[in-house]
Specification:
globular; about 550 residues
Length: about 550
């Protein structure tokens, strides 16, 4: 039927009466609706007259409801089940009303698409395809969105927004719409695991020995696969989407609070490590360490006030590109050193005195545990998540082993943390250091934001502070704290990061998942034995790391 759009209704446009006349609705329903509408108008007019006791009638928008309001009122009051014919008429009226409300949103969506790069070109191609009757599934994906838009699933920072229990929302929430294919989800998982911690592994390998390095990384990767499988099983059986929801079901608010504390320690520790990393690179390029911290503090104070993940997506894309460029450059430099000078003669296979540092750094390097479940929830086919995470863990293990062993074999016991400090001094290595430092600094806001949201809930409650100045003051204090600890912990960089791995990363990755699974989902003695084994090994790893720092 031909009908005006929702946006055209108004006192000087089509009225409800003309709308009904243009609709394919039986005359009986139209007459009944017009009668009810007339009665509603008379009631409103009589109310207005009785309210104007002082001689001045009520005017303006409060004088009587608009025709649309009366339309809604009458439709809600009609009985669809009174008889078959009138019920079908009312349902048709409601359906027409509902579908017409979508017109402004569609128009806004089209306007946003047109404003995007190459938007008019895509719109022209879509209209031409419509005229020729080309089905939507036969049209190229490039017609649907811009190139930057197609990168959305890869650069999205909000995968774990609202899933860490930081929004104060109800326990049961609807899952997001499916949007990620297998390859896209695999890349998103890989990006969430690999971070700047990989630059510390060569020094840890030098502290522990190459044989211990291979064994420890393999065991940690295998433990992560088992722990993630535990989380997925908890999510599937308990029908909840997030890590914090699982914690709340398994152990109540104490378990959720413990999870939040671990997340805050992990994120704040990561921010401190990032600042030390950049300051050491600045020191290597000629600035003092203290000056490097101060410069970062000046930029971090305003950047840390960002409160939405979406604003960080493009900086995260740049950080990801810089990270992989830096890693490839470091690997190329190490390979050239090995080919030209051979393997350093000072390498050892095992060093029992300081091997704990590497174990802590290994757990810290497999970061991103809070992201795994939300990325799975965004997958189009969640049944493929286990194969995706297994593939990602294998690729991550290979990258970490190649990075650790090649740099250790190239630079020997003198390898430094971060490994970029071991590169030979030349313009190319300085450019690589600058690129890697930019990657680390651009990752700072994203690393800080989850901890900031959790601490704001601790201080101001679930509704957050109605006064934005108080929240900003809290963030300023946290930023100063991060910079101060980075200034103090700089000389003990690798040991500090190993402790972060012990007290934050190990609980998130290898203690909470099997513990929650043991409480919620263990279906037999075999499952319980696996959970208990993971718990024991995680606790032993914590004690071993602390004793061998």
């Amino acid at each position: 039927s031909s009908r005006p759009a929702r946006a055209t209704w108004g006192p000087n446009q089509h009225s409800c009466d003309s709308y009904l006349e243009m609709s394919e609705v039986p005359n009986e329903a139209v007459a009944g609706f017009q009668k009810a509408l007339k009665k509603e108008r008379e009631r409103c007019n009589s109310g207005s007259a009785s309210s104007g006791g002082s001689g001045s009638p009520i005017t303006g928008p409060m004088a009587m409801p608009s025709e649309l309001d009366a339309y809604d009122f009458v439709l809600d009051g009609l009985d669809e089940d009174k008889d078959a014919e009138s019920g079908e008429s009312v349902r048709k009226l409601k359906l027409t009303r509902q579908s017409s409300e979508d017109v402004p949103r569609l128009a806004q969506s089209s306007a946003a698409e047109l404003k995007a790069p190459q938007g008019f070109r895509r719109d022209y191609l879509q209209r031409k395809a419509d005229a020729q009757g080309l089905p939507q599934d036969s049209r190229p994906e490039a017609w649907q969105q811009s190139f930057i838009g197609s990168l959305g699933p890869l650069i999205r920072c909000g995968y774990y927004e609202n899933y860490l229990g930081i929004e104060g929302q109800p326990l049961l929430r609807p899952l997001p719409k499916d949007r990620l294919g297998f390859s896209t989800a695999t890349f998103a998982l890989l990006k969430s695991i690999i971070g700047s911690g990989v630059a510390l592994l060569p020094l840890g390998c030098a502290q522990a020995g190459w044989l211990f390095c291979i064994a420890a990384l393999t065991v940690v990767a295998f433990m992560n696969v088992l722990s993630i499988d535990r989380l997925v099983r908890c999510s599937e059986i308990a029908k909840v989407p997030g890590y914090a929801d699982i914690a709340l079901l398994a152990g109540g608010w104490p378990a959720k609070l413990a999870l939040q504390v671990s997340i805050v320690l992990n994120q704040i520790g990561g921010c401190i490590g990032y600042m030390i990393f950049v300051a050491k690179e600045a020191q290597h390029l000629g600035l003092s360490f203290q000056y490097g911290i101060l410069i970062q503090l000046v930029f971090a104070l305003p950047i840390f006030q960002v409160r939405t993940y979406k604003k960080l997506e493009y900086s995260t894309l740049a950080a990801t590109i810089f990270l992989f460029v830096g890693l490839l450059s470091v690997l190329a430099s190490a390979a050239c050193t090995i080919l030209s000078q051979g393997v350093d003669p000072g390498i050892v296979d095992y060093n029992p005195k300081s091997c704990g540092i590497f174990l802590g750094l290994a757990f810290l390097s497999f970061e991103g545990a809070p992201n795994f479940l939300p990325i799975r929830n965004h997958m189009a086919e969640r049944k493929h998540f286990r194969s995706a995470i297994s593939s990602v863990m294998f690729m991550t293990l290979v990258i970490f082993l190649v990075m650790s062993l090649s740099c250790y074999f190239a630079y020997g016991p003198e390898v430094k943390a971060p490994v970029l400090l071991s590169l030979p001094k030349n313009p190319w290595s300085q450019l690589v250091e600058a690129i890697f430092s930019a990657s680390v600094f651009l990752s700072l806001p994203l690393c800080y934001l989850p901890s900031a949201e959790i601490t704001e809930i601790w201080v101001f409650g679930a509704e957050r502070s109605s006064d934005g100045h108080k929240a900003s003051g809290l963030r300023i204090g946290e930023t100063l704290f991060i910079a101060g600890v980075a200034l103090i912990a700089g000389p003990f960089y690798e040991s500090f990061m190993a402790l972060v791995g012990v007290f934050a990363a190990i609980p998130l990755q290898s203690i909470y998942p099997p513990f929650f699974h043991l409480l919620l989902c263990s279906s037999g003695p075999t499952e319980a034995a696996i959970d208990i084994t993971l718990l024991i090994f995680a606790v032993v790893s914590m004690v071993f790391t602390v004793m061998h720092l």
